[in-house]
Write a structure and sequence with these properties.
Layout (H helix, E strand, L loop, with lengths): L6 H30 L7 H25 L2 H20 L4 H21 L1 H4 L4 H30 L1 H19 L16 H17 L1 H31 L6 H24 L9 H15 L4 H33 L2 H28 L4 H29 L4
Helix pairs in contact: 1-3, 1-4, 1-6, 1-7, 2-4, 2-8, 2-13, 3-4, 3-7, 4-13, 6-7, 6-10, 6-12, 8-13, 9-10, 9-12, 9-13, 9-14, 10-12, 11-12, 11-14, 12-13
Length: 397
């Protein structure tokens, strides 16, 4: 068996780091730009909505793109779109359209970057490869977010230029990936047939018990994750009496640090045959959120968020690996990740919509946090029980 850290794997990890760095730095740099251009405050979330909408609209198509061409070249093309979007913002183009173009690149990039892992690794290396991918992504989120904000304070166009440079480095790293065979060449490119093929793949995956477990679990996790990020903004001044902007950002960083630790632990303790060992961690995420919501001490809050992140990393990495494996066997890894992206981004929009509604209705922040934690824990319990019953009824181990 070839080593995990092959030339291809190293190139994928480097490309992923700089591509994700660019995504996160560009968000904060572009937010600073639209503030300086005096756009209204309500327009700020529209920036992120355009990015997420690209994932949802393009979901029926990007999986086939990833499986119809060499995935390294698809990643290179996607990073070229991101670079183009960043450059258009740099030269004074509409920031919303430029960032939406980056979202198109990100939507095309995602199925290829995860799908390629199953082509350049073998067997239980896939879980370890996912751990490296998640660790690289989280490191990029941490460093990119801070860099985008700090550089924007110094000079807006220096920040935007740094984002474009990051995408350029990612594109160059993609050139280091040896050309691989297309997983499923020769598929029809008629839009209607592509959409039919996508939804057929979605149905196929949904009927597969393991794939269904992964799709539901990862969608719940990322929907909850983006909601927790916004909850922190309201929770910090109420629970801790701190009104600055830095504290919520640092608390979010603690979750990211924990995810890296949990991802590393999952790579050591879980294989594709023992994926269900991650489900108790999902239940404990909800329990930890409840305890966190009731915290009034900053140090305790930091510690609990590291724990929540570690449980999250332990939960999400094996589920990603499971979906890639089941997708590779049935509908193609690219199609599987595209279906997953649709589920995750739809969950984000729905959970944020529910969160906005309860805030508007005047539900206390502490009540929202406790209810959120309880509902998440119960959701994972229901998923766990349903999965166990399905495996029992089919004679699974």
């Amino acid at each position: 068996m070839p080593p995990l850290l092959s030339r291809s794997m190293n190139a994928v990890i480097v490309a992923q780091f700089f591509s994700a760095f660019g995504d996160n730095a560009l968000l904060f740099a572009t937010l600073a730009l639209i503030k300086s251009l005096l756009y209204p405050e309500w327009s700020q979330p529209v920036l992120q909505m355009g990015f997420v909408a690209a994932y949802i609209v393009l979901a029926p198509f990007v999986g086939q793109v990833a499986d119809s061409f060499a995935k390294g070249r698809v990643m290179m093309f996607a990073n070229a779109l991101k670079l183009l979007g960043a450059l258009s913002i740099c030269v004074g183009g509409n920031p919303f359209l430029g960032y939406a173009l980056v979202g198109v690149g990100a939507a095309a990039y995602s199925p290829a970057k995860y799908g390629i892992l199953g082509e350049i690794t073998h067997g239980d290396q896939l879980v370890k490869a996912n751990g490296l991918m998640e660790a690289s992504t989280i490191a990029a989120i941490l460093i990119g977010s801070v860099a985008g904000g700090v550089l924007a304070d110094w000079n807006l166009y220096l920040a935007l230029g740094a984002c474009a440079l990051a995408y350029g480095i990612a594109l160059a790293a993609n050139l280091m990936i040896p050309r691989l065979k297309a997983a499923r060449p020769g598929t029809s490119w008629h839009p209607k047939r592509m959409a039919q093929g996508f939804f057929s793949a979605a149905i196929t995956l949904w009927r597969d018990g393991d794939a269904r477990l992964s799709l539901i679990g990862t969608s719940l996790f990322w929907g909850a994750g983006v909601t927790l990020r916004f909850l922190l903004v309201l929770w910090v001044p109420l629970a801790l009496g701190i009104t600055d902007n830095a504290t919520p950002t640092l608390l979010n960083a603690m979750v990211a640090v924990g995810i890296v630790l949990g991802a590393a632990l999952a790579a050591k303790l879980i294989t594709l045959n023992t994926v269900r060992r991650c489900l108790p961690a999902g239940v404990l995420i909800g329990v930890a959120v409840v305890f966190f919501t009731l915290q009034t001490n900053l140090i305790g809050a930091y510690g609990l968020l590291v724990i929540i992140g570690a449980l999250g990393g332990f939960f999400i990495v094996p589920l990603n690996a499971l979906l890639q494996e089941r997708g590779r066997i049935s509908v193609g890894a690219g199609n599987a990740i595209a279906v997953q992206n649709l589920g995750e981004n739809t969950a984000m929009l729905l959970m944020l919509g529910l969160y906005s509604l309860v805030v508007k209705l005047g539900v206390p922040v502490l009540g929202i946090g406790v209810g959120f934690g309880v509902l998440f824990a119960l959701s994972i319990v229901v998923l766990w029980v349903a999965t166990a019953r399905a495996r029992h009824s089919t004679g699974g181990a």
